[in-house]
Design a protein that fits this description.
It is a single chain. This protein is mostly helical and about 325 residues long. It has two domains: about 160 residues, no CATH class; about 130 residues, no CATH class. Helices cover about 50% and strands about 0% of the residues. The longest helix is centred in the N-terminal third of the chain and has 23 residues.
Length: about 325
């Protein structure tokens, strides 16, 4: 039987409610956004993955742009954007080589543009650990060259994009991506979710989950060795979803307001275990595993947050304030 360490697990539900309250306070322009000094001081992702700035940019500007792209174009655009996971790099690249699509996926032009860009600052976001070593591509000099050559050789030329378009499940999509060089379990799951934001594939986010390293640490802290060694991390994440309302009520965190009526899905709950691992480093430091401190402090982003979700979710019409303004009144976490 799966059994959490309730003294620890309560912080999972505390984080979910308080982090979501921060979003709603920002949305309604209610200050202060939170009284929690940890959430004020350090960077934590949103409860819903699709709410974070990079995901919002991907959905609005990369996937659902005004251009009439083919299904394979859309998948290519998602992968190229996610390799760097950095809107500034994406905007620079499209300004230099044009709209990313199969028709203009010229590796020489793209690599030359990125080499110029590297001179003025990082081209990769540091959110994901992106390996730059693989025996098939080590003859190339730069990490971005290796990744983009892999996209050409494997996703395009070996028809992985075609397989994804014909995929029967989110799990199949994961498997196809997992079979590519450089792409391990974590990235394959993240990329599958990103592709599922589009209209190219359409699977329930509750049909498949894969725990990342940070989420695994959070699961182990919340469930201890007895449960986490007997059951898979994915089983425990599903257990959490199945018993979500029960534990909300038990711990007294049942004032959670979902995202325009959309309940958190498995990808969101997986991410929240990662964030719970981080907040527990402050709240319960005796539980330390490998990581001893939260690495990223919050830095305010001066740009407003533009809310837009996959139209197939049918929640965009519920958004009263599509643009949430930036503010200097209070530390925020967007």
């Amino acid at each position: 039987m799966i059994k959490p360490n309730e003294e620890v697990f309560k912080y999972y539900f505390y984080f979910i409610q308080e982090r979501m309250n921060i979003f709603w306070n920002k949305y309604e322009e209610n200050y202060p956004l939170t009284q929690d000094p940890t959430l004020q001081s350090y960077k934590f992702t949103n409860v819903y993955r699709a709410m974070d700035r990079v995901s919002q940019y991907l959905i609005k500007n990369v996937i659902y742009s005004d251009d009439n792209f083919s299904d394979k174009d859309v998948l290519l655009r998602i992968i190229v954007f996610k390799i760097f996971n950095k809107p500034d790099t994406w905007e620079y690249l499209e300004s230099e080589v044009g709209k990313i699509s199969l028709e203009n996926f010229n590796l020489t032009d793209i690599n030359n543009a990125l080499l110029k860009r590297k001179d003025s600052g990082p081209i990769f976001n540091n959110a994901y650990m992106m390996t730059g070593t693989h025996s098939l591509y080590n003859h190339l000099d730069f990490k971005h060259e290796k990744w983009l050559q892999m996209v050409k050789n494997e996703l395009i030329d070996q028809s992985v994009f075609d397989k994804i378009i014909e995929a029967k499940s989110l799990s199949d999509t994961f498997d196809y991506l997992r079979g590519c060089s450089f792409i391990g379990d974590f990235l394959a799951y993240q990329y599958a979710i990103d592709m599922n934001y589009s209209n190219v594939i359409n699977f329930s986010e509750d049909s498949f989950v894969k725990a990342g390293i940070g989420a695994i640490r959070g699961v182990k802290k919340c469930f201890g060795n007895a449960s986490s060694s007997k059951y898979s991390n994915e089983d425990i994440i599903k257990f959490t979803q199945d018993n979500f309302e029960y534990y909300q009520s038990k711990f007294g965190y049942d004032d959670f307001i979902p995202l325009f009526g959309r309940s958190p899905t498995l990808i969101d709950l997986q991410n929240c275990f990662c964030e719970t691992d981080k907040i527990l480093r402050v709240k319960m430091p005796d539980l330390q595993m490998q990581n001893k401190r939260i690495k990223q402090r919050y830095q305010e982003t001066p740009k407003p947050l533009e809310l837009f979700f996959p139209p197939k979710w049918d929640i965009n019409y519920k958004i009263d304030k599509p643009n949430i303004p930036a503010t200097n009144k209070e530390l925020t976490l967007f």
